[in-house]
Phosphatase
Amino acid sequence: MFKTILFDVDGTIIDTQYVMTRSLQKTLLEEKQLEVPLEDLHFILGIPGREAIKKFSENDTELETLLTKWNNNILPE
């Protein structure tokens, strides 16, 4: 008898790769006027969002602004 059921959701049931890279692409365009091709954003997959955003922010204030905007673009109201 099984006591635990484990689901591997990301990459099997759903794929968040496009959502994550596209939302960051949109954030960078809106906030920094940077046009970054989606394929150049694949490095963000598998690392914490804060680490990904550090590559594009010049200071802690901008980092927090970009993180907030990115999160809002991932899950729009």
Observations:
- Residues 17-74 form one domain.
